[in-house]
Amino acid sequence: MSDAVIACGVVAVAVLGFAPQNNAMLTAGAERTFKPVIDGMISSICGWLSLFALALGVLHLMPQWMSGTAMVLASLLLALSGLTRYMADPGTPLEQEAAPVRPTLPVQNLQSPESWAVAFFLAGSALSGSVTLASAFAGLTLLTASGLGLWAVAGWSGCLYLSSGWHRRHLDWGFGILMFVAAIAALMPGG
Fold first, then answer.
1. What is the rounded distance in angstroms from the CA atom of residue 131 to the CA atom of residue 120?
2. Helix (H), strand (E) at residue 160
3. What is the pTM of this model?
4. Contact 65, 73 (CB under 8 A)
5. pLDDT single digits (tens) 38-78
6. Hey, what long-range contacts does 36-40 have (CB within 8 A, 24 or more apart)?
C-alpha cells in the first residue's frame, strides 16, 4: 500500500471522528438550510488548514530528520488515541453533551491533541517526501469537506441522536479501532 493511501486513511479517520466538528455539522444539517452548513464547513476546514500550516512552518525551521521523527511520533499518538477511544466505556456520558458553537471550531482544533497529531503527521509526510505538499493540502481539504458533508447529511436526515453519549461512544469505538489500525499501518515500512 502506498504512503499516500495510508496518509489519506489516517487523516480521513481522524477528521471523520473529530467529535466537536461532527456535532456542529449534525446541528447545522438539522437546520435544513445551507448557510449554517457552509459556515460550519468553512470554519472547520480553516481550523484544520491552520494547524497544518503551523505544523509545516515549525517542521520547516527544524532539521530535516525532524520531519520523519514528527511523523512517527504523531502516528504513535494517533494509535494511542485510537486505542483509548476503543477501550473507553460506552456507558460513561461524554464530558460535553451540548452542541458546540460553530465559530469556536478552530479553537477546538487547537485544543485537541489529535488535531495537532494529524497536522504534524501530514506536515512530516509532506516534508519527508512520503507525499507531495500539494497532495497533502488537497487531501486534507477534500477529506475534511467530504467528512463534514456526510455529517451534515446525517443531521439533515434527522440523525441528531448520533451526538448523544451512548451513540457517540459506540461511534468512537469504531473510529478508535480504525484510527489505531491506520496509524500502525503508517508506522510500517512502505513496500
1. 13
2. none
3. 0.83
4. no
5. 988 898 898 899 999 999 999 999 999 999 999 999 999 99
6. 36/102, 37/152, 39/102, 40/102, 40/105, 40/148, 40/152
